[in-house]
Specification:
alpha/beta, 8-stranded parallel beta barrel, 44% helix, 15% strand, globular, binds 3-hydroxy-3-methylglutaryl-coenzyme A, binds magnesium ion
Length: 303
């Protein structure tokens, strides 16, 4: 299969990136991060999550973040909504896309959203219907598709079953997520091909955490199957508080460097993204988490 000429990057640092930070980050910094990303040309930014503040305190200011960001025309601002309470808040905040998030593993579903997979589907149905009625885009995130921190191996059939349910609910996009970053290219290809047998490939995205350093290889494997949407996070921020041992998402700078080198367009200003990665890492008092971003920043400094 020919590689895509254009890849849509969904920038998840404001949500996946910051949700896992131990120290509370100010709303000002969150808003500035989203605004800088908008200016860099991202077509889709996952801005925040309307989840229970008891479960994920870092996202408690979701409404404020949404009210204060400057929206770039043409950019989709997505938010996580686990239930109707989250959906109603997202609707009031003017989200362009709501994300229901389930899992291919029972154990992770219980840990992350406190219910079984079947119960989660029942909870998502009204959210999906309300999103359709309101004319808002609907995305389904599917965790633990390449392995689970509690259950270990996850059968491909479990991934396909939930993906099918998401498609039946009318999801415009479905994220095949490697929550703990254990997937390797052969398995990634196998899972993506299996999902593509039941869902149009143009609706499938890859969401890879880079815990074991496999993400770039997995993105290439997924592109070879025809996937052309990937989730990334500046400076490799990220991780799910309910996935033991999970570290950040694949760094946006690394993915953009690879895609640019392969002649694949994203519409994003790479130099600005390097600056954003270094800026947010500085705010979090740590070195930049992108190899490409750090290399470029170092070469600029030595000029
Ligand atoms: P629960 O405790 O079973 O729900 O949590 P509940 O209905 O009993 O509600 C408990 C309290 O939360 C109540 O407040 C509700 O009002 C409140 P109280 O009456 O006790 O004062 N509440 C809410 N508040 C604000 N917004 C809401 C909301 N819902 C309930 N939407 C629930 C169930 C799903 C709410 C909870 O488990 C939850 O919020 N989980 C989210 C955990 C999370 O944020 N995980 C990280 C995001 S997922 C992820 O990172 C994976 C992903 O990146 C893909 C990948 O990498 O795999 C997407
Ligand atoms: Mg994630």
């Amino acid at each position: 299969m020919a590689l895509p000429g254009f890849v849509k990057i969904v920038e998840v640092s404001p949500r996946d990136g910051l949700q896992n930070e131990k120290e509370l980050i100010s709303t000002d910094i969150k808003v500035e991060l989203v605004d800088l990303l908008s200016e860099a040309g991202f077509l889709n930014i996952e801005a925040t999550a309307f989840v229970s503040p008891k479960w994920t305190p870092q996202m408690a200011d979701a409404s404020d973040v949404m009210a204060r960001i400057k929206r770039r025309p043409g950019t989709i601002y997505s938010v996580l909504t686990p239930n109707m309470k989250g959906f109603e808040a997202a609707l009031a905040a003017g989200a362009d896309e709501v994300v229901i998030f389930g899992a291919a593993s029972e154990a992770f579903s219980q840990k992350n959203i406190n219910c079984s997979i079947a119960e989660s589907i029942d909870r998502f149905e009204p959210v999906a219907q309300a999103a359709k009625a309101a004319g808002i885009r609907l995305r389904g995130a599917l965790s633990c598709t390449l392995g689970c921190p509690y259950q270990g191996e996850v059968p491909v059939s479990s991934v396909v079953d939930v993906a099918k349910r998401f498609a039946q609910m009318g999801c415009d996009e479905i994220d095949v997520a490697d929550t703990i970053g254990v997937g390797t290219p052969q398995r990634t290809r196998q899972v993506m091909e299996a999902v593509a047998n039941v869902i149009d490939i143009s609706k499938i995205s890859g969401h890879f955490h880079d815990t074991y350093g496999q993400s770039l290889a997995n993105i290439l494997a997924a592109m070879e199957v025809g996937v052309s949407i990937f989730h990334t996070s500046v400076s490799g921020l990220g991780g799910c508080p309910y996935a033991k041992g999970a570290s950040g998402n694949v760094a946006t700078e690394d993915v953009l460097f690879m895609l640019r080198g392969m002649g694949i367009d994203t519409g994003i200003d790479f130099d600005r993204v390097v600056d954003i990665g270094q800026w947010i890492a500085g705010h979090l008092h740590r070195p930049g988490g992108s190899r490409a971003g750090n290399a470029i920043a170092a070469s600029r400094a030595s000029r």
